[in-house]
Amino acid sequence: MGRATGAMLLLGTATWVGCEGAQGPAGADGAKGQDGQDGVQGPSGDPGAPGPGTQGQPGPGATARAPGVESGTPLSSVIAVTFRGDLGTGATNVAEYVKARVEQVVTGRLPSPLVFPLSPASTDTVRSVPGLYPTTVIKWMDPLAFAKGGARFGANVDYIAFFGDGWSQDGRAPQYHGQGAAGWMWINHEYVSGTKPRVGTAPIGQHLDFARFLRNTGALANTVADGTSWQADALVSYNREWKKQVGGTWMRVVQDPATGGWAVDRNAANVRYDASSATLAKVVGVTLSAEDHDDSGVALAAGVVPGTHSNCSGGQTPWGTIIVGEENVQGVYGDPEAALWTGKNDWIPAAPGFAPGAPLAPDFSAPAEGDMVSGDRNSTHLKDGYGYLTEVDPGQPADLWYGKDATKPGAGHRKLGVMGRAHWENASFVVDADWKLLANQPVVIYGGDDRRGGRIFKFVSQGKYTSGMTQAQVRALLDAGTLYVAHFAGLDNATGDTLVGGVVPTDAAPGHGRWIQLGLDSVDLAPNGEAFGRPTLQVGAALRDANHNAMGGFVNDDQVRKLLWTAANKVGVMELNRPEDTEWNPKDPSGTPLLYVAFTEHGDPTALDQQGRVATAVLQDGVWVKKERGAQDNRAVDKVGSIFAIREADPAAPAGSRTFDFFRVWKGEAAATSAAPEFAAAKPDNLVIDREGGVWFGTDGNFGVNKVADGVFYLDQAPAHRASPYFRKAFRVLSMPSDAEATGPAFNSDMTSLFVSVQHPGEDSFSVWP
To answer: How far is C-alpha 15 from the chain's CA centre?
Structure first.
């Protein structure tokens, strides 16, 4: 029991919509279901047990299958791992059950022959520990409604948030409130795997699967597997449809009380938000370089941009909206900072528009080339319109940008320019033990710039939250505030996860850092001022200085926010090892609220040296010239990642904290060199904090490091276990299919189910899952 079989996975996917190709031997016919519309899969009767093929034959109530991706194609999916019984532990939900098993391991009372944690392996299935049962909720290209031609579920899934029905009663926050067996889910769609089509070149991987789907549905007329058939007109059509595969999905889900499986309510008002101009958002907090247009060329209102894309992780706000991180936008409409730094973080001397000794003049114009950009000039958009933490008002029309409708004050979608442009992956909020904002304090948002050498940022609103504020009033608090960047003083530039001298920072002997205000009016001391013989140099002055640290001078705070990576480099902020997720834990087992950070890995040279100077630039006769990189500026040593905790100087009022302690709570391992390989895992990614303060995480890259599938892990930090060898060990709870990343873990309201995104199965290695 507990290991997912084909039958288990099919509990949530009794109908395979949009598949085409070889079918496994039929199972017994199920009861007759309702007749579906022509060309679309109708609800079938319950299928019989599947044969050894991919899926049993649907019951006779099903119509002919709709054109779709090829059978056997690996599909990104959302799964639910559901608690189905305590098995003698006395638990009532997933979290309690796993913690009970951990307690048995620590005390040596684990019943024989039970295996816990889940054994390491790499299979083409979803596996879970005994007592938990995985089912598939939805997969790429599944319809979100019964109507023919309606919206479909998007591509590679990532961040998940759950809103139980009735969560907002009595001013509650959505986290762990409302019904547990019915509610709304938000899911991010980050990208499409493989290689896109180009003139004369056919697509590969998921792009080819999607092109075949478009061919089968009539959206493309060319022979998609033949490169010669891909000409400009086909690319315009393809890119128009590609934009609809990313962004996010808002859908209602319900649980079957008999099986525990989850399914989409296709009669609900489910909505897709995507990268096309069907979705509109207003950039607030900065002024765009120009006015943009929609995908047909029609001018948009000032500050409004079409679509959101590259959505990786995010955050569920305490007031009921969703923050999505627009991460790797550089491949779509371009990155203005790419003119200053190479992909290996090398400084580019006298780069156009960034020449040292001159004001910064970044190019934010729409590029002529890039993903989703075709021969249609209207398909491209401004560089500074993307790369933000984007607040989606779920359930509202996709084209309702923030401030558009005066009859809906405070409603609509916006991009938080107040926090700047970065490779944003996530957002988290300072909350109390009931997951509500702290009364009579400013709103505090943390976010991580997920790049090698990225930093952690903190936004503190200018106004304060007071109990009883409406959603519109709370959202208005984010219109103005102060942006800070975390400087991990004393961190070793050669490792990124130890202090200078190789010392591991612990909760008893932590490292010390400070929050540096990042702006032209900042009077905080620049971290690299002393290295340049200017120990009293202030951050604002350093940013304006057109010759400081081999970079031109910033001319306004809009530039600072749009070029966060460059601004942090200029003043010498310590680089970090890909901060992929930040999560505030108001109920931490330590007894003090902590901010957890997942550092996935680094593996590249750093842009700066230990003193915060550009590692590949040297000043000679008043001119910055290229120099050779030092060995200490290469962080290739970190291939496994770690999880850190940040303890604010005043955990009860983090808005006012200007200093913090930091320490490592978990270090990734290579199984080949681990003393306990069953606990070895690498490259932590998304974090989730359970209702009682337990810390869980998914991995992205354990498959490559350890040849063991990525999965979801529980990090044991029970104070009573501190003296145990299992303290702060990662207990594997769930294992992914081949080469699939475990992303977006999220509990339902009562924690009886854990939702997980199975992202990019088979992207680089064999998979036919599901």
So the answer is: 29
> What is the residue whose two structure tokens read 């995010």?
314
Q: Is 237 helix (H, G, I), strand (E, B) or coil?
A: helix
Separation CA 44–CA 548 (nearest Å): 68
**Beta strand 642-648 pairing with 659-667:** antiparallel
Give me the phi and psi of 550, to 5 degrees please: 65, 25
What tokens appear for 711 in the block? 């999965």
Closest of 316, 297, 268, 300 to residue 401, by C-alpha:
300
Give the pLDDT confidence score for residue 631 in this predicted structure: 82
How far apart CA 667 and CA 682 sit, in angstroms, is 8
DSSP structural state of residue 281: E
Q: Tokens 């729409």 label which residue? A: 366
Q: Which two tokens stand for residue 223?
A: 């022979």
Residue type at position 439: A
Q: Rounded CA gap, 284 and 561, in Å?
A: 12
Read off the amino acid at residue 768: V
Residue numbers in the chain where pLDDT is lower than 50 = 1-68
Q: 3-class SS at 271?
A: strand
Residue corresponding to tokens 């979803």: 126
What pairs with residue 731 in β-bridges? Answer: 714
Angle at Cα 575 formed by Cα 574 and Cα 576, nearest 5°?
A: 120
Task: Report how far residue 547's alpha carbon sits from residue 364's, in angstroms, rounded to the nearest whole number.
Answer: 22
**Tens of pLDDT along 647-663?**
999 999 999 999 999 99
What per-residue confidence (pLDDT) applies to 69? 54
* CB crowding 370-403: b at 16 or more within 10 Å, else e: bbbbbebebbbbbbbbbbbbbbbbbbbbbbbbbb
Q: What angle do CA 708, 711, 712 make, to 5 degrees?
A: 145
Say how far apart CA 88 and CA 79 lie, in whole Å. Answer: 26
Helix axes 232-242 and 206-216, enclosed angle (nearest 10): 100
Q: Tell me the HSE value of 544 on the side-chain side, using a 13 A CA sphere.
A: 12
Q: What DSSP string describes 508-565?
A: SS-EEEEEEE-STT--SBPTTTGGGT-TT-BHHHHHH-TTGGGSPBP-SHHHHHHTHH
Q: 3-state DSSP call for residue 206? A: helix
Through-space distance between the first and last CA atoms of the chain, rounded to whole angstroms = 19
Centre a 10 Å sphere on the Cβ of residue 422 and count the other Cβ atoms it contains: 28
Alpha helices by DSSP H, 171-205: none
Q: Report how far residue 751's alpha carbon sits from residue 95's, in angstroms, rounded to the nearest whole number.
A: 7
Of 84, 96, 92, 99, give the one whose Cα is nearest residue 130.
84
Long-range CB contact pairs, 713-722, < 8 A, 24+: 713/117, 713/681, 714/98, 714/99, 714/102, 715/643, 715/665, 715/666, 716/102, 716/106, 717/589, 717/590, 717/665, 718/99, 718/102, 718/103, 718/106, 718/589, 719/589, 719/590, 721/102, 721/106
Among 132, 118, 135, CA closest to 86: 132
Length of the chain: 770
Q: What φ, ψ does residue 217 adopt, rounded to 5°?
A: -95, 0
Q: Largest Cα–Cα distance in the chain?
A: 85
Question: Residue 495 is encoded by which pair of tokens?
Answer: 């490792």
Q: What is the pLDDT of residues 6-65, one digit of tens each?
A: 333 322 333 223 333 333 444 444 444 444 444 433 333 333 333 333 333 333 333 333
Which pLDDT score is estimated for 70?
56
pLDDT, tens digit, 9 for 90 and up, residues 517-540: 999 999 999 999 999 999 999 999
Q: Where are the domains of the chain?
A: 1-66
pLDDT of residue 309: 97
Rounded Cα distance between 686 and 159, Å, is 8
CA distances from 603 to 642, 702, 729 (A): 13, 15, 24
Q: What is the pTM of this model?
A: 0.90
